[in-house]
Design goal:
mainly alpha, MetI-like fold, 2 strands, 72% helix, 2% strand, globular
Length: 471
């Protein structure tokens, strides 16, 4: 078999992939890194922004708040999540499939993915929750956004410094997570599934109350939102008990643009992500070595970059010069694509590793060109993973706020932006209507993922993103 001929086509694709990753990930981050060391008045090299951060108690309080909330969230995730997972996996509980399905929904906010470190990262980079309900409890992600907005017409030095500090924290977290998972061997001496035990009546009732109670607590805010969407309201005043469809009528007739924008942008980013994720997955699995490892690091880097930081980086990097994307829908698609494509890559990579290389080699030896062998032999087998990755990309993109709030331009506001703006203005009725549309739009593909592919979002994310890191 001619190895050179086999790798030729894929080498061209590999170069193109690195070019995309450089301009979509590395270049914007390096741009704000440089900006963070520039004096906002003179434009020369300066440490003023970092000195300001460590000098003023306000900024240090933002740092402490971020670390405190994230650590607390991670702790609660361990205390609650471990018993929840153990009870559902080890004991035969009535209705446990429903409980497991209803438990994949809080991810939209977002919430627990798969472990304390992931929860810590999600908390420290989160923008939507602290900006809406945090009030004076400022965190780094919100403060970076505020600094950027206030300096939109000037030098984004302080916003860059805050972004780099936040990025340093998330990168450190990623390194710790990778080191922790790779230093241990996660294997079992048995391939048999763990036996599911049947308990007596009282323990079963108590465990079921515990699990169902957690799900109810997680879902209760969503239920309130749905009820509010059908409740008559005047600004922030809700007239509970008075039914109305006015909020949905306004959403679908007077202001349907955010809904259409969300569907269009999420779909465009997902389609691009499917193709990109597919070829990257193949390169990661089939081409081993230093180049493959570097590619793996670069494709996972967006997971370590907070959405606010990524939004600021893209907005600053492509605000002038040969390629101007700021203020267009294309920069939103670029942000969504590069931020969510790791889900698609890891989901398809995990499946591709289960496909024997000899199957593909046999096709090539029979005279079918390598790329065509990939399309005819490998692609159909990978289809379940591709669909799962696409659904994960689509639902998480649809609920994206942190990068959107920085990058969107008036006509391209999404549902999450509309919800954010309505809540800030005290217009709770329409905000609830848009939120309900978002919830339903996420639940439908999650239902498809669970029913047609036999997996829930938590399983797909864990096996695709975290599980693959230790594999």
């Amino acid at each position: 078999m001619n190895i050179g001929r086999y790798l030729n086509t894929w080498n061209v694709i590999l170069v193109l992939v690195f070019i995309v990753l450089f301009f979509a990930v590395l270049y914007p981050v390096l741009y704000i890194f440089k900006a963070s060391f520039m004096d906002p008045e003179t434009g020369v090299f300066s440490l003023n922004s970092y000195q300001t951060f460590f000098k003023y108690p306000y900024y240090l309080r933002c740092l402490r708040n971020s670390l405190f909330v994230s650590a607390l969230a991670a702790g609660f995730a361990l205390v609650i999540g471990i018993p929840f997972a153990f009870f559902l996996s080890r004991y035969d509980l009535p209705g446990k499939d429903i409980i497991k399905t209803l438990g994949t929904l809080p991810l939209v906010t977002p919430a627990i993915l798969s472990g304390a470190l992931v929860v810590f990262y999600l908390s420290i980079e989160n923008f939507g929750v602290p900006i809406l309900i945090g009030e004076d409890f400022r965190v780094l992600s919100v403060q970076a956004y505020n600094e950027f907005i206030s300096e939109m017409g000037g030098n984004p030095s302080m916003a860059g410094a805050l972004s780099m500090i936040l990025l340093s924290l998330t990168l450190l977290l990623t390194v710790v997570q990778k080191y922790w998972t790779e230093r241990k061997t996660y294997a079992t001496t048995s391939v048999q599934r763990t036996a599911v035990k049947r308990l007596s009546l009282l323990p079963t009732v108590l465990i079921r109350i515990f699990c169902a109670g957690l799900v109810f607590i997680a879902l209760f805010p969503f239920l309130v939102v749905v009820v509010a969407a059908f409740t008559k309201a005047h600004g922030p005043v809700m007239y509970y008990g008075q039914f109305t469809l006015d909020h949905f009528i306004k959403a679908f007739t007077i202001a349907p643009r955010p809904i259409l924008n969300s569907f269009f942008l999420a779909t465009a980013a997902t389609l691009i992500g499917i193709v990109f994720g597919l070829v990257v997955s193949y390169l990661l699995v089939r081409q081993r070595g230093t180049v493959s490892y570097l590619l793996d690091v670069l494709t996972m880097l967006p997971l370590a970059i907070a959405g606010t930081v990524q939004g600021i980086a893209l907005a600053v990097a492509y605000n002038k010069g040969l390629v101007v994307l700021t203020g267009t829908w294309m920069i939103l698609v670029l942000a969504y694509f590069i931020r969510k494509v790791p889900f698609s890559i890891k989901t398809t990579s995990a499946l591709l590793r289960q496909i024997d290389r000899n199957i593909e080699d046999a096709s090539v030896n029979l005279g079918v060109p390598p790329f065509r062998s990939f399309l005819k032999v490998i692609l159909p087998v990978m289809m379940p993973g591709i669909v799962a990755g696409a659904i994960i990309m689509w639902v998480t993109t649809l609920a994206e706020l942190s990068s959107t709030i920085v990058l969107y331009y008036g006509p391209w506001a999404t549902m999450t932006v509309e919800i954010f703006q309505r809540i800030n203005s005290g217009d709770f009725g329409p905000a609830s209507a848009f939120a309900t549309v978002l919830i339903v739009s996420v639940l439908i593909p999650l239902f498809i993922l669970h029913k047609l592919l036999g997996r829930d979002l938590t399983t797909a994310l864990y096996r695709g993103v975290d599980g693959d890191r230790s594999g």
